[in-house]
Amino acid sequence: MARHFSLSGFPEWLPEQRLVEQHVLTTLQRTFELHGFSGIETRAVEPVSQLLSKGETSKEIYLLSRLQADQATDDAELGLHFDLTVPLARYVVDNAGRLMFPFKRYQIQKVWRGERPQDGRFREFVQADVDVIGQDTLGQHHDMELPLVMGDALSKLPIPRVIVRASNRKVAQGFYEAIGIEDIDGALRSIDKLDKVGEKVVAEMLVEDGATEEQAQLALSLATITGTDSSIADQIYALGAKSELLDTGLNELVALIEGANELIPGSIVADLKIARGLDYYTGTVYESTLVGHEDLGSVCSGGRYDSLATDGKKTYPGVGLSIGVSRLLARVLGEPLVEASRKVPTAVLVAVMDEEHRGASDKIAMNLRERGIPTEVSPSAAKFGKQIRYADRRGIPYVWFPGEPDSVKDIRTGDQVDADSTSWAPPAEDLYPTVRMLS
Amino acid sequence: MARHFSLSGFPEWLPEQRLVEQHVLTTLQRTFELHGFSGIETRAVEPVSQLLSKGETSKEIYLLSRLQADQATDDAELGLHFDLTVPLARYVVDNAGRLMFPFKRYQIQKVWRGERPQDGRFREFVQADVDVIGQDTLGQHHDMELPLVMGDALSKLPIPRVIVRASNRKVAQGFYEAIGIEDIDGALRSIDKLDKVGEKVVAEMLVEDGATEEQAQLALSLATITGTDSSIADQIYALGAKSELLDTGLNELVALIEGANELIPGSIVADLKIARGLDYYTGTVYESTLVGHEDLGSVCSGGRYDSLATDGKKTYPGVGLSIGVSRLLARVLGEPLVEASRKVPTAVLVAVMDEEHRGASDKIAMNLRERGIPTEVSPSAAKFGKQIRYADRRGIPYVWFPGEPDSVKDIRTGDQVDADSTSWAPPAEDLYPTVRMLS
Predict the structure, then answer these.
(1) Which chain B residue lies closest to A58 (C-alpha atoms)?
(2) What is the per-residue DSSP string for A53-91?
(3) In A, which residues are within 8 Å of B75 by CB distance?
(4) CA distance A177 to A351
């Protein structure tokens, strides 16, 4: 059941849905850190000149202005960032003297795009990015490292299986050049639409852009090749193209695919139709699909860029991937495919006998919290039945009754036992809300 | 050492500083959840009409416009939120049918204010808010609960001691009315400036606004009263004022102070000079000072508002406090008062013999990560001395050498032992970066 958001394109979750989002974000963060990536945040705004510096005209930008702007003191025109890559490039140049390279960073933040509301796209959404940035050089092995980091992170989320796919710009470009296609960018753009519009339409688009029927068919043949080992190279060479750039790209792609699948079998599939449209990638490119939800499109994409940024003296090559967290969440929360085990963090509700004795309940709650047990005190000293209903509606598993001695009731089973607030603890699985996939 | 930010008013941290920020944010989040508060996030934007609905003309608002705006489809004017209270009011009304009341929520997000750059204020900063919202009614005991939650959270942060102070609008208002001051709002505004401008100037401001010298002196006498028990009531009545509103306010304030200090001695101080300027509070008001850094002003403030929001049929009273996280961080990172034990999350760097054997190092890293140990593989197969320096510069405590058998070296002590990547683990204190206060 899709939810209607009160402002179109700006998703907001209920507290119990936010528990799922927090679980997803924490899992991503912990996995990125397990691989040695440092978290950073960049400011939400960049000078508009910076936002437009990569020629990203396809992304709609939100500009800022001050309601009570004072003309005399106003400064550079600012806009909200539409991704986390342009800000990373700027951050790296700003702080180059204070960072250590290769710089491994993750970044989980909201981004904004002023899309037309009727397109049903989000205008505010969370992205989770990992990138490695080198100074002047960056080892090719990072092209294998990054998708494995993302694969590890995605496999730990409460979502269907994700298949990570890779190709290489140099393969496509070398191949097109070798078979005589002149409009390389046009061909990449057309092939990028293959999943959306099908082979027939793509062939027409290629011919419209100047390719012959035969060239178009060869480009489509390349795009149908997939595999997990060096046999992809044989299939590609069998199409008859030969070029140095093609060789370089294939060496990179085969090393990536073979290395990754030797380490973790089935981790990455070569898929030669991946083109990544107009993006600024120069080598490896990645996409990923959620099994059973291919209509969502790629949930995690990225690639290698030989010069993310430059400060005139040095260049900063990088490779990275980005998860569209909000799109993923909207699907798994919308269906829903997942749910939290309760609606609030609370494990124990301490009942209140009457308002005069609220202090005794507060003291019990303090004792429980001191040992890390999430605890609330009942907001009212209503009849116990009503206090138990307060817990039940929120999925709080335990209600504590002050007395001599105190007792604690598991309201799911009805079991009630005497208990001491300085020593009792719930089973570990009841301590925090958990998130599970619905079957 | 204050850092220069590349865009004035928009703070950004280096990776090792971000470790401190993450520690602070995680500590706040865990403590709020320990008290049963649910986390939510609201969108960054609100309709401008909503932002202006509380008459908050003192806050500078950033308006949004789309760079490629299409006049025909453009919608309501939007602005970035300048606090988390106005969005909470809107969220509660939007979702009233799906929330359970009292609604205990925390919210940690960036907010934006289009301040003049030369004021040296932040234009983007993180706030951490906790509020309890009732439907039509909200128990008075929550006025004691909320500052204790914040006090608990603040006491767990790596910062100097924070003193939470409270007063009550009804006390000030009832007192001013009783002694015949007519411009109540003006008097609250003047008293709010006491710490900044001193008694003499405040007295002049009060007289300018129509008070007599005697009334001004009485108002100042009220403002000097502080205490942690019911003796504050005696001191106030000794000034000779009498009114029903004053009685109500004093009952609330004494109940709060006595209850809190009975539960946690020294937790809250009554401080009658707290006025909270022009804010929309209707009862209890809070401020907090960082001991030794009183020049920072209040680091955590809030209060009770009898009608945060209304949807025509129901009203939503609330009480809450907000920490200005970025201001606090800028101080403790700027001095610096705190530091992380290392610059990256990594606990172990796995050395690489040569590029042909990188796969063996990758496998070792996988084994370590599988058991939760943050691990990186050396980006280059340089001489071991250089690989060790890579670890040393980042503060990574262990370097792992593949071999038969493998060995692991604590590069702080030089101790090196044979080790198996499927069973070795570092001491618990080395697993993650820790954050410590500098003495």
Answers:
(1) B68
(2) TT--TTSPPEEEEETT--GGG--S-EEE-SSSHHHHHHH
(3) 8, 117
(4) 75
What sign does the dihedral B192-B195-B197-B199 (CA atoms) show?
positive
In chain B the domains, ranked by start, together with CATH numbers, are 15-340 (3.30.930.10), 348-437 (3.40.50.800)
| Distance from C-alpha of B283 to C-alpha of B248, rounded to nearest angstrom | 10
Half-sphere exposure of B92 (CA within 13 A, CB side): 28
C-alpha B269/C-alpha A32 separation (Å) is 43
How far is the alpha carbon of B33 from chain A, nearest alpha carbon, in Å?
A: 6
Give, for all 439 residues of chain A, the pLDDT tens digit.
345 678 989 999 999 999 999 999 999 999 999 999 999 999 999 999 889 876 555 678 999 998 776 654 556 799 999 999 999 999 999 999 999 999 999 999 999 998 876 666 899 999 999 999 999 999 999 999 999 999 999 999 999 999 999 999 999 999 999 999 999 989 999 998 998 899 999 999 999 999 999 999 999 999 999 999 999 999 999 999 999 999 999 999 999 999 999 999 999 999 999 988 766 899 999 999 999 999 999 999 999 999 888 888 999 999 999 999 999 999 999 999 999 999 999 999 999 999 999 999 999 999 999 999 999 999 999 999 999 999 999 999 999 999 999 999 999 999 999 999 999 999 999 999 999 999 7
* Strand positions, DSSP E, B206-355: 226-227, 268-271, 284-290, 300-310, 315-324, 338-340, 348-350
Going across the sheet that includes B348-350, the strands are B375-377, B348-350, B398-401, B407-410, B416-418
Which of B39, B152, B346 lies closest to A36 in CB terms?
B346
CA distance B107 to B109: 6
> A141: closest CA among B226, B152, B359?
B359
Task: Say which residue the tokens 């204790």 belong to.
Answer: B148
Residue pair A345/A431 in contact (Cβ under 8 Å)? The answer is no
Query: What 3-state class would DSSP assign to A155?
Result: helix
pLDDT tens, position by position, B92-143:
999 999 999 999 999 999 999 988 766 668 999 999 999 999 999 999 999 9
* Residue A404 C-alpha, separation from nearest chain B C-alpha, in angstroms: 20
Q: Do residues A166 and A225 touch, judged by C-beta distance below 8 A?
A: no
d(CA B404, CA B423): 16
Give the separation between CA A113 and CA A123, rounded to whole angstroms.
5
**Cα separation, A141 vs A252, whole angstroms:** 9
Contact residues on chain A for B344, CB-CB shorter than 8 A: 36, 38, 104
Instruction: List chain A residues with CB under 8 Å of B112.
Output: 44
Closest CA to A316 of A132, A41, A52, A141: A132
Tokens of B340: 């992380």
Asked if B309 and B89 count as a contact pair (C-beta separation under 8 A), the reply is yes
Interface test with A, best of B33, B126, B367, B378 (most A CBs within 10 A): B33
Which residue bears the tokens 């760079």?
Answer: B67
Q: Which amino acid is at B171?
A: V
Tracing tokens 């109500």 back to the chain, one arrives at: B248
The CA distances from residue A367 to A311, A348, B85, in Å, are 56, 12, 31
pLDDT bracket for residue B2 (50, 70, 90): very low
How close, in Å, is residue B419 to chain A by CA atoms?
Answer: 20
The answer to whether the Cβ–Cβ distance between B14 and A95 falls below 8 Å is yes
What is the Cα–Cα distance from B360 to B401, expressed in whole angstroms?
Answer: 11
